[in-house]
Design brief:
heterodimer, A: 258 residues, alpha/beta, Rossmann fold, 2 domains, five-stranded parallel beta sheet, 13 helices, globular, B: 368 residues, alpha+beta, eight-stranded mixed beta sheet, 24% strand, binds iron/sulfur cluster
Amino acid sequence: MARKIPKIAVYKFASCDGCQLSIVDLEDELLEIGQRFEIAYFMEVTRAVKKGPYDVGLVEGSISTPHDVELIKSIRKDCKKLVAIGACATAGGIQALRNWASVEEFSKYVYAKPEYIQTLEKSSPISEYVQVDLELRGCPVNKYQLLEVLSALLAGRKPNTPTYSVCMECKRKGNVCVTVAKGIPCLGPVVQAGCGALCPTYSRGCYGCFGPMESPNVKSLASKFIELGMDKKDIVLMFREFTGWSKEFREVDRLIEE
Amino acid sequence: MSSQQKTYFALDAEMFGNIIDVLKDLGYTVYGPTERDGAIVYDVLDSAEQIARGLYDEQSPGRYKLVKKNDKRYFGYVVGPQSPKYVLYPPQHLLFKVRKDGKTFIPQSDGKKIAIVGLRPCDLKAIEILDNVLLKGPYKESVYEALRKDAVFIAVNCVEPGNNCFCTSMNTGPFAQSGYDICITEFLTDRSHVFILDVMTNRGAEVVNRLGCRNATAEELDAVSRLMEEAKNKVRKRLNTENLKDDLYKNIEHPNWNEVGNRCLACGNCTLVCPTCFCSSVFDKSSLSMDVAERWGLWDSCFSIDYSYIHGGSIRQSIMSRYRQWLMHKLATWVDQFGTFGCVGCGRCITWCPVGIDITEEANRVRG
Ligand code: SF4
Ligand code: SF4
């Protein structure tokens, strides 16, 4: 086959490495991936680095320092296609909780010498600074979605990564709705599918790690949670997790009061 | 009822399990109502032991609760979140597989014959509607056809209709009129527990012959008639279907659409629990090795943005427009398209809507 082997680069910003590990976790497919792609830059896995440009860059983590900002801009130039992977890279991650507080204040308590810390006011998704070609959601990303993106890339087709609600996956699986049958608050109706409805499958409400679906009606779902007996304060906390800083979830406190 | 020519049989409750055994002996994969995670869902039955017993469901908009009573009733509940479409038109189904060497694989029916036990009259009507949509047009839905063709339906009349049922309005229940092979009425008193079997087809007769039933007595048939009258009166939710289609068309710009659009989550639950919602999309999978590709069918929903994606974008951006599209299809445009309503009054969409949006109330408000 005369096809050119695509070069992949995998990068990390502020994150826990879980999404990169999801790539490594593709155990059964790793050998095949190694044959079909050239792993040109993947520090989590190997120190061997091949020079860019790269056909596709997978970026984990959020932008949280001035250095990150410069780096992501040069990465964008190096990669023909840029895919942001995971809640940090697509919504700012759990570390974006500081976006509602003073980062200076935090630094004072955490670091012995806060003056050495150079950080931005906010933890932001990659798309805040550069154009992103595709976002893969999740904390961590779903390995089947990763595989789908890689296979689609090889075939030159659009990856199939739906943007509708988690409920769609739940119902197709035959799960019983935890909210309707047990009164458990679940973010599924406003959260994007892709995880295979993991939490509801184990009778828990969705935590929202895949972030907002295509047209989230946060206000209506919050009213439902109030009806289920939740405090407004707790509802805000429920939205402020992995993807709390996403545009659609960010203002949940204001939406509840409206 | 008792005046008809048909023969009605009676089966004592202790013998009920034989129906499942006979169906299995005849080579059917038997689906029936079982309890899982606090609801009644369809599952493959090895024996009647697995059927949920002594359970009753409380349903209201956005709420479902199973309650245990100390009786031995088999079918004390009505419909759960799954409809027969779950069995007959699986949520995700392989359409074909192609290999690089040019070989194409189209899944053929593996000859699996399905029997569904415990479907309700509204569900039988829903299957009739699906037949109309999926099999009567110029193109047949082959996956559905293969599973549907030899399927046997052992239906159950609803003696205790649920709070969200409005089958009397849609003329689909609470007692079955057609579409079954055998229809059962469960009859439980302090003194006796029997099933009265109404046999409609040869396939049904084949099952009954092997059961060794006795003929139902005149008293039993009278009792069934009484139960039917009582059941009708217990269906309290209503939707006035007179002029419904025209009233809806006239009110396409009614302000209530915006109001319900503010509450609707566009989650799609209503469409996936609905026994007649048939929309599906196709998607392709290709392997890393690049030598196999598959095409799959997948339940879709008019509540997703992609559903109305055409060149240039989605034509139903607002949630309001998606809700309106759905309700209008169920109760108006379906009539023009297929000659019946797209709703059988099962109430599933009302119960399983997380925010409890009620199709009957919304239709009434819009006409109002
Ligand atoms: S529209 Fe609702 S009530 Fe009507 S058949 Fe569908 S789920 Fe049942
Ligand atoms: S009507 Fe209810 S179930 Fe249907 S999409 Fe809207 S919120 Fe979801």
